UniProtKB/TrEMBL annotation:
CDD domains: PBP2_OppA (cd08504). It comes from Azospirillum lipoferum. This is Peptide ABC transporter substrate-binding protein. InterPro entries: Peptide/Ni-bd, SBP_5, SBP_5_dom. It comes from the Bacteria. It is found in: Periplasm.
C-alpha cells in the first residue's frame, strides 16, 4: 500500500466514522472540502487569503452576506437604509442575532470590530478597500485613533457607517471583506492570541470551530445559536489543507472529499473530457501575476529591465499549453469580467511574439546584462503543482529569450513560509494572485496604492500620479468620470511594470454530484450553509 493510499484510506475511515456517529436516524451529514493549504490564522481581521476566507465565511456572518448566486442578502442586519446623498448607511440588527455562546449581538460589537480591523497591528496592513469609510484612511495609516472612524451605534440594534463619498458598491464590499466581520470582544480581549483556538473561539456564523489539527484537518460543527440554523442542512464541515492538487483529486476519486480546491494543470484537459459532470470550470474574478521587488536592485531603478522580462512572457502560450482551463491572458490587473469598465492593457498586447522578443532582448542588453554578466534571479512561490508548472514555463521563456544572460531559480516553499517572506519582501520576484471581493476595479487597483503593504502592494510600488488618480476617482460621484480616472490609474501602473500580469482565472475544481446549491458567481464563493446533499434536508 502506497503512502498516498494509506492517507486516503485514513481520511475515508475518519469521514465514515463522522458520517455514522450515533443511530442511523441521528447520523450527521458531513461535508469534506479540500482547501489548498494550511490557514495562517482564523482571525478575520488579520487575513484576506482565499484559504482562510473559505473557513471564515462559515464561522462568521457580517451585516450583509452574499447569497449562493452572489446577490446581497440580509446577514446580522435584517434591513438597512441609505441616505439620499449615498454617504450614510444605517443597519438594523435582527433581534435573534446571537453569538455561539448565546450572548446577544449588539451594534457595539460591530463598532468595536471595525475599529479593531482597521487599526494597524504587528505589521499587518488593514484592508485598503475600507478607506471609503469616513476617517478610515487616517486610522489605517496610523495617523488617528480608531475612535475617529465613521462608525457608530446610536442604539443597541442600529449600526451607522458614514462614508467619505457615495460608494455604490459598499454593500458588496462589506459582504465580502473580512474586516467587516464581527468578533466577540470579551473573548478576543481575555484569550488574546489564543482566541481562535477550538473551544475558545466565539463566533456568529452558521458553524463553530471544533478542531484544528495543523496541516491535517479543521473541523466545524453546526452553530445551534445561529439565527437561521434551521435552514443549514450540513451538520459538520471538514476543511483539509492539502497543497498538493494531485492528492486532492485522488482523495476526491476515492470518495474522501466532496470538493477540491483545484486540480493539477496537467490533468485539466483529461478531467474536462472524462469527468465533465463534476468538473467546475468557470471564469471568476481573479488575476495571477508575478511581482518585482522594487525596493532593491536590480528592479528598483530599471523600468526597462522589468519591461523586458514582461515582454518575454508568452501569456497566450501559458493559457493554451500550461493552464489549459479557459483562463484569459492578462495584460493588466483588472479582469475583463468587471462590468462598466474599459479594460486596460500593456501597449504591446497586439504585437506578435517575435516583435516582443526583439524589443525584450534590446532592453535586456541595454540594462547591462549578457552571458558575461548574467542576471541571477529567484522566483518565490507557495508550493503547489500549478504554481510550479507556471514558474517552469516562465523560466523556460526567459531562458529562450535571453540565453545564458539569465539564470533563474524557482523556489517553492510551504505556504506559511511563503506568506512570511512576502510580508517582509524577502524575494526578487514573487508569485501572487488576487481574488476580487466584489466586481469593481478598485478591488484590484487599491493593491498598488503607495500606502498598501504586502500581501497587497507586494512590489512596493510608489507613484504619486497613480495615488492621485485613485483619490480623484474615490471622490467622484459621476460614474463615467470615475471609470475614466480608474482606467488612467491602471494604465499608469501598467506602463511602470511593477508586476507581470499572467492570466485571469477560471475555476478548476471538482464538485461531487451529491452536492446541491453550488451556484455560479463571479467570486467563486460557496459558503457551506447554502449547500446540501441530494436527498437530504435541513432538520
Amino acid at each position: 500500500m502506497t503512502e498516498l493510499t494509506k492517507r486516503v484510506s485514513a481520511v475515508m475511515l475518519a469521514a465514515g466514522l463522522a458520517l455514522f456517529t450515533g443511530t442511523a436516524a441521528q447520523a450527521a451529514t458531513v461535508l469534506n472540502r479540500g482547501n489548498g493549504g494550511e490557514p495562517s490564522t482564523l482571525d478575520p481581521h488579520r487575513t484576506d487569503g482565499r484559504i482562510e476566507s473559505n473557513i471564515l465565511r462559515d464561522l462568521f456572518e457580517g451585516l450583509v452576506v452574499y447569497g449562493p448566486d452572489g446577490r446581497i442578502l440580509p446577514g446580522v442586519a435584517e434591513n438597512w437604509q441609505v441616505s439620499d446623498d449615498g454617504k450614510l448607511y444605517s443597519f438594523q440588527l435582527r433581534a435573534d442575532a446571537r453569538w455561539s455562546n448565546g450572548d446577544p449581538i449588539t451594534a457595539e460589537d460591530f463598532v468595536y470590530s471595525l475599529r479593531r480591523a482597521l487599526t494597524p497591528k504587528d505589521g499587518i496592513q488593514p484592508s485598503s478597500n475600507m478607506r471609503v469609510i469616513k476617517g478610515a484612511a487616517a486610522v489605517i495609516d496610523g495617523a488617528k485613533p480608531a475612535d475617529t472612524l465613521g462608525v457608530a451605534a446610536p442604539d443597541p440594534r442600529t449600526v451607522t457607517i458614514a462614508l467619505e463619498a457615495a460608494t455604490p458598491y459598499f454593500l458588496d464590499l462589506i459582504a465580502a471583506d473580512n474586516s467587516a466581520l464581527p468578533v466577540h470582544r470579551a473573548t478576543v480581549e481575555s484569550q488574546r492570541e489564543r482566541w481562535t483556538d477550538p473551544g475558545k473561539m466565539v463566533s456568529n456564523g452558521a458553524y463553530v470551530l471544533e478542531e484544528w489539527r495543523a496541516r491535517q484537518q479543521i473541523g466545524l460543527g453546526k452553530n445551534a445559536n445561529f439565527h437561521d440554523s434551521g435552514s443549514v442542512a450540513i451538520d459538520r464541515v471538514n476543511f483539509f489543507p492539502i497543497d498538493d492538487s494531485a492528492e486532492e483529486v485522488d482523495r476526491f476519486k476515492a470518495g474522501a472529499l466532496h470538493l477540491t480546491y483545484e486540480v493539477p494543470q496537467d490533468r485539466v484537459k483529461w478531467i474536462s473530457l472524462t469527468e465533465p459532470k463534476v468538473f467546475w470550470n468557470r471564469p471568476f474574478l481573479a488575476t495571477y501575476y508575478y511581482a518585482f521587488n522594487l525596493t532593491v536592485e536590480p528592479f528598483k531603478s530599471s523600468r526597462d529591465l522589468r519591461r523586458a522580462l514582461s515582454l518575454a512572457v508568452n501569456r497566450e502560450n501559458i493559457v493554451d499549453k500550461v493552464t489549459r482551463a479557459g483562463e484569459t491572458p492578462a495584460y493588466g490587473l483588472v479582469p475583463p469580467i468587471v462590468p462598466n469598465y474599459r479594460r486596460q492593457t500593456a501597449d504591446f498586447i497586439a504585437e506578435p511574439m517575435e516583435n516582443r522578443l526583439r524589443e525584450a532582448r534590446r532592453l535586456f542588453s541595454a540594462a547591462g546584462f549578457s552571458p558575461m554578466q548574467p542576471l541571477t534571479l529567484e522566483i518565490l512561490y507557495n508550493q503547489s503543482e500549478n504554481n510550479r508548472v507556471v514558474a517552469d514555463a516562465v523560466v523556460s521563456m526567459w531562458q529562450d529569450a535571453f540565453g545564458k544572460g539569465i539564470q533563474v531559480k524557482p523556489v517553492g516553499v510551504e505556504r506559511t513560509d511563503y506568506l512570511k517572506r512576502r510580508a517582509r519582501r524577502d524575494f526578487q520576484i514573487v508569485r501572487a494572485a488576487w481574488i476580487g471581493d466584489y466586481a469593481d476595479p478598485t478591488v484590484f487597483l487599491n493593491l498598488m496604492l503607495s500606502t498598501a503593504l504586502p500581501p497587497r502592494n507586494d512590489p512596493g510600488y510608489r507613484s504619486r500620479k497613480y495615488d492621485d488618480l485613485l483619490a480623484k476617482a474615490a471622490a467622484s460621484e459621476d460614474a463615467g468620470q470615475r471609470s475614466s480616472l480608474l482606467a488612467q490609474a491602471e494604465k499608469t501602473m501598467i506602463d511602470d511594470h511593477p508586476v507581470i500580469p499572467i492570466y485571469h482565472f477560471s475555476t478548476k475544481s471538482l464538485v461531487s454530484q451529491q452536492i446541491k446549491g453550488w451556484v455560479y458567481n463571479v467570486r467563486d464563493v460557496h459558503p457551506s450553509r447554502f449547500l446540501s446533499f441530494a436527498g437530504k434536508a435541513a432538520s
